């Protein structure tokens, strides 16, 4: 029962649990209230999930108020979940008779002549309430007799007092262990230099934890500062309870350490000594590392380094290769008088066996005395006392004898009958791997192998019987062998998408099988992580066989064989390293085709692949049908059908639904008409299809008169389609040629050609052309250039020859839109005419001339590009003396009034006579002829160009969509795919008409693009819903899209060549997080110096 109470002035959540023996208070509440606590009283308790926990002390004289009832009690401190205070049987027993109404959550009792009534919470509070069934933190009971040494299994009562007598053996060790003859030694290979491995880089959050744990070990006296030439890197491994475990990576030191094998007892011989025993106790020593001292001369070899200093261990640290040898040597030494009489020792597992309980008490006293004399501590949570059956070294030991632990073959016995051909092949692959150990294997498996024939897989009772018989044969001797510790072990591991599997064997003879399905969070891991998880799980599972003995791990993942030599960099690798430290193993690669058994075990948990096709099911039919009664047309149709009258054509009645031309009829007043059209056009399954596809999709299910027109209107007015669809029409906007000038060099056009090779300090060309005569100047310049520099060149190369022009036509190059350029020519009385945004065709004269000049240079300097400057005068002479079809003369003749001079050939023996033109052409007549020819050329060009164009006009106040060019990006190299960018933005309102084919739009405030656009970049907004858009990509003054970095989401490093390159995951201004891109940090800082990362 849950209820609210108070401790002092603090409200607490109380849970009354009759299944808990004692009362428990959350330590955080005790700390918050400042209660008087004795932290030295620590007791083990079991919780609802069977896990062993320890209390954190006792709070004395806690005053608790439950509604009208007030009492005081001493309460144990324990971290519980979902409540602050647990009141168990200890409190309930003090109340005497209790009346309980569980449904109404009412509890009544009488105490000291007063009646009390407690009313619990009927509805769950804001935070989840505790439950003994689903929360492992709630206490079932304190361990037997409240002894700090009791175990999870029932312990015979005569043993409990003995455990209390030797309670000091079950406490955590303090201080250094005593010196012993078996202190750990580290013997290096001859000629080995001191091992010195540079330390790892630590995260900021780990540095404080490292410092704290180092200080604790210094205070405990197990480490000391060091000046040793040896150094191994220290690291922190994250544990499941969100704390950190300190360990040292001794792989390099272990590599040069002489391995000291010691005689490992043969299990068969050990188990033979158990004959006649009926009572067993199993003791598990605490981690042996800190219970054994380091040999004094070898202490410097354990040195490790952190960011704050250099230290060395005085006790045997975790991770040294010979640590199991030292531990087993110690056990053999101290228990030598009792070994194989009533004690078996296998590393840290001690088994005490006796024929009777009374004898067993004597034997336990002897063992406890030895442990006390040598200051060795036992881990109470892993001990069991006075048992009739115990699990020891992979066997079940009882008075009846020794049996193989069923867990070794449980994965074989639990193998489900195959339901697919693939599953059957997997099982037979495992069985066939051990066929030489199974008698009559071919006969047993024949019914199963017959199912492998083509089109013959059909599971039958005969196949099921054969499947069970083969499983039983695989899980019994002589298939399973007993381990021989004089021979090396082999662990074969594999992982699949759904599980992991492993086989422990010797000389290709299996000893144990292992198979485990993967949790959902593990299925998402990489193949590397899954394969490594299989290795770690198998090694930990078979620890009694593998610890202190060399073994080989076989895996079909080739990169894992480098694990022993690679540098540990990830938290996951740190966890694996910690779990494998202390084992003597080698990793070898075996192709998957040869790793049959482990592969089959890992795929045991694979299920049939479920394939299905989901589609929407309309739940609107009932609403459409109900609307028939409110619609006069539908009501009339229903009445006609029910009275057997002839209804309107194309209507029919099927059940209670009206159909129009084989589609469900939806009345005109129903809101479902618009919803259906939206679903069949705008949903992900509809895909914003065009008119015909949308109409056919709707028509398959619904229909009504005028459906075709409604679909056309919806598709035409869809804003998403208008922004993203192509216009399948001729380019809008008829050709509007510029006015023909009246004089030479009064109206000119300018442009640049960039990107040329550096030659004589020049890498660009300034192109200036007279719009009337077509006469041009090509001037080599250096890029980058400024507006002042270009203006100076213009004065020296053009103005001095032809004077100041009246108009200059150009594109929107940054030079031509700069303030200096505008101010300079404004003072000269020159009008600057620039092309509209994204429409360079306005300056078609220089665009064509640029292409012509580039063709000339490519033709003559293609083999030697750096000589282009030398050919520029020849190109200018060639162009100006070349006939133009538009002017019907050369530019030279149009400017100077006579044809360009010709070079006559000299013929030997002939006399050259210079013929002088006897009349002069009239200058005005020449200009009139020139203008007439240009007008004729313009008319001809307009005639042919308009054949490929369409006419489009807008009125002031119309709404239009605007096409931009997001692929023209000037600041971001690695951008998102431009094909997925919208083709049109808007809609925007037309403010004014400029000329015949340009319009000024009402762009959002802050837009950095000129608001006047050519009509070819605009298309009308269709539909009645108009919402002004403020969405425009960030644009520069030139109309180029320029994304700006907003912040750094992640940081990383990659190897490029022989150096490390820092990379940033950049979130761009105005774009969502999922559009972030990885950029080089140096490139971002170069392009955006003001960006603060």
TrEMBL record:
Residues 920-947 form a coiled coil. Residues 218-397 form the Reverse transcriptase domain. GO terms for biological process: DNA integration; DNA recombination; proteolysis. It is an enzyme of class 2 (transferase). One of its GO terms (molecular function) is RNA-directed DNA polymerase activity. It comes from the Eukaryota. Keywords: Aspartyl protease, Coiled coil, DNA integration, DNA recombination, DNA-binding, DNA-directed DNA polymerase, Endonuclease, Hydrolase, Magnesium, Metal-binding, Nuclease, Nucleotidyltransferase, Protease, RNA-directed DNA polymerase, Transferase. Transmembrane segments: none annotated. Residues 735-899 form the Integrase catalytic domain. Residues 1043-1093 form the Chromo domain. Its EC number is 2.7.7.49. The keyword Nucleus does not apply. This is RNA-directed DNA polymerase.
């Amino acid at each position: 029962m849950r209820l609210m109470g108070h401790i002092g002035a603090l409200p607490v959540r109380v849970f009354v649990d009759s299944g808990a023996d004692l009362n428990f208070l959350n330590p955080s509440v005790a700390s918050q209230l400042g209660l008087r606590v004795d932290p030295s009283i620590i007791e083990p308790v079991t919780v609802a999930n069977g896990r062993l926990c320890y209390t954190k002390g006792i709070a004395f004289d806690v005053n608790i108020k439950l509604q009208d009832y007030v009492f005081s009690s001493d309460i144990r401190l324990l971290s519980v979940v979902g409540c602050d205070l647990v009141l168990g049987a200890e409190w309930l027993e003090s109340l005497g008779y209790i009346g309980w109404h569980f449904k109404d959550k009412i509890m009544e009792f009488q105490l000291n002549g007063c009646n009390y009534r407690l009313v619990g919470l009927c509805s769950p509070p804001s935070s989840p309430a505790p439950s003994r069934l689903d929360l492992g933190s709630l206490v079932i009971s304190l361990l037997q007799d409240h002894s700090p040494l009791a175990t999870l299994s029932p312990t015979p009562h005569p043993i409990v007092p003995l455990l209390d007598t030797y309670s000091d053996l079950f406490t955590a060790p303090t201080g250094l262990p005593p010196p012993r003859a078996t202190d750990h030694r580290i013997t290096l290979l001859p000629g080995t230099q001191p091992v010195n491995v540079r330390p790892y880089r630590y995260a900021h959050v780990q540095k404080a934890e490292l410092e704290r744990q180092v200080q604790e070990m210094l205070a405990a006296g197990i480490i000391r500062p060091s000046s040793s030439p040896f150094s191994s890197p220290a690291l922190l491994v994250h544990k499941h309870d969100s704390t950190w475990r300190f360990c040292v990576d001794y792989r390099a030191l272990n590599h040069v350490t002489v391995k000291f094998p010691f005689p490992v007892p043969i299990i068969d011989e050990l188990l033979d000594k158990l004959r006649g025993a009926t009572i067993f106790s199993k003791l598990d020593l605490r981690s042996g590392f800190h219970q054994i001292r380091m040999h004094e001369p070898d202490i410097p070899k354990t040195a490790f380094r952190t960011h704050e200093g250099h230290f060395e261990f005085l006790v045997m640290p975790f991770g040294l290769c010979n640590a199991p040898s030292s531990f087993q040597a110690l056990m053999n030494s101290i228990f030598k008088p009792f070994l194989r009489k009533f004690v078996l020792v296998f590393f840290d597992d001690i088994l005490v066996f006796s024929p009777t309980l009374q004898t067993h008490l004597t034997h336990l006293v002897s063992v406890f005395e030895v442990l006390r004399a040598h200051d060795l501590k036992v881990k109470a949570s892993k001990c069991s006392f006075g048992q009739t059956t115990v699990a020891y070294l992979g066997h079940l030991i009882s008075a009846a004898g020794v049996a193989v632990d069923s867990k070794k073959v449980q994965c074989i016995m639990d193998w489900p009958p195959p339901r697919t051909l693939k599953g059957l092949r997997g099982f037979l692959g495992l069985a066939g791997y051990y066929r030489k150990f199974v008698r009559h294997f071919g006969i047993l498996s024949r019914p199963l192998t017959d199912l492998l024939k083509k089109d013959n897989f059909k599971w039958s009772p005969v196949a099921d019987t054969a499947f069970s018989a083969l499983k039983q044969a695989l899980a019994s001797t002589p298939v399973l062998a007993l381990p021989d510790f004089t021979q090396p072990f082999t662990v074969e591991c594999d992982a699949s998408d759904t599980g992991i599997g492993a086989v422990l064997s010797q000389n290709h003879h299996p000893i144990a099988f292992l198979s485990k399905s993967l949790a959902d969070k593990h299925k998402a891991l990489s193949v590397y992580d899954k394969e490594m998880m299989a290795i770690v799980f198998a090694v930990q599972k078979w620890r009694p066989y593998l610890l202190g003995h060399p073994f080989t791990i076989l895996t079909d993942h080739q990169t894992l064989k480098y694990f022993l030599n690679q540098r540990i960099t990830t938290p996951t690798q740190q966890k694996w390293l910690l779990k494998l430290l202390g084992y003597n193993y080698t990793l070898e690669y075996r192709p998957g085709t040869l790793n049959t058994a482990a592969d089959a075990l890992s795929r045991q948990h694979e299920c049939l692949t479920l394939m299905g096709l989901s589609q929407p099911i309309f739940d609107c039919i009932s609403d459409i049908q109900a609307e028939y009664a409110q619609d006069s047309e539908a009501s009339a149709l229903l009445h006609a059908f029910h009275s057997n009258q002839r209804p309107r054509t194309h209507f029919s009645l099927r059940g209670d639904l009206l159909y129009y031309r084989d589609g469900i009829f939806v009345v005109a007043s129903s809101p479902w008409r618009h919803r259906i059209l939206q679903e069949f056009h705008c949903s992900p399954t509809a895909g914003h299809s065009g008119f015909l596809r949308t109409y056919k999709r709707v028509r398959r299910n619904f229909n009504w008169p005028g459906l075709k027109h409604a679909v056309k209107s919806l598709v035409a007015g869809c804003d998403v389609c208008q922004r993203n669809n192509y216009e399948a029409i001729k380019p809008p906007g008829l050709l509007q040629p510029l006015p023909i000038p009246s004089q030479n060099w009064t109206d000119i056009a300018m442009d640049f050609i960039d990107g040329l090779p550096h030659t004589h300090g020049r890498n660009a060309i300034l192109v200036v052309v007279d719009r009337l005569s077509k006469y041009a100047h090509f001037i080599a310049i250096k890029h980058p250039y400024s507006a002042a520099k270009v203006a100076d060149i213009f004065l020296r190369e053009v103005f001095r020859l032809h004077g100041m022009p009246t108009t200059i036509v150009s594109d929107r190059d940054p030079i031509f839109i700069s303030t200096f350029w505008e101010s300079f020519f404004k003072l000269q009385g020159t009008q600057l005419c620039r092309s509209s945004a994204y429409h360079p065709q306005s300056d078609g004269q220089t665009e064509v001339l640029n292409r012509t000049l580039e063709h000339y240079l490519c033709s003559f300097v293609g083999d030697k590009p750096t000589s282009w400057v030398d050919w520029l005068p020849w190109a200018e002479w060639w162009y100006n003396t070349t006939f133009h079809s538009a002017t019907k003369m050369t530019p030279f003749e149009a400017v100077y009034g006579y044809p360009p001079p010709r070079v006559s050939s000299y013929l030997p023996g002939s006399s050259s006579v210079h013929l002088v033109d006897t009349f002069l052409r009239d200058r005005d007549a020449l200009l009139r002829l020139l203008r007439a020819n240009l007008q004729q050329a313009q008319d001809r060009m307009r005639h042919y160009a308009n054949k490929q164009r369409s006419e489009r006009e807008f009125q002031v106040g119309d709404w239009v969509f605007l096409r931009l060019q997001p692929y023209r990006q000037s600041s971001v190299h690695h951008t998102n795919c431009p094909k997925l960018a919208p083709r049109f933005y808007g809609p925007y309102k037309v403010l004014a008409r400029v000329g015949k084919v340009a319009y000024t739009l009402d762009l959002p405030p802050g837009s950095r693009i000129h608001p006047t656009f050519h009509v070819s970049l605009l298309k009308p907004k269709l539909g009645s819903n108009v919402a002004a858009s403020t969405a425009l990509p960030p644009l520069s003054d030139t109309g180029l899209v320029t994304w700006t970095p907003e912040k750094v989401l992640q940081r990383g490093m990659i190897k490029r060549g022989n150096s490390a390159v820092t990379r940033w995951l950049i979130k761009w201004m105005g774009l969502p997080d999922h559009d972030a891109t990885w950029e080089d940090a140096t490139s971002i800082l170069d392009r955006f110096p003001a960006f603060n990362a």
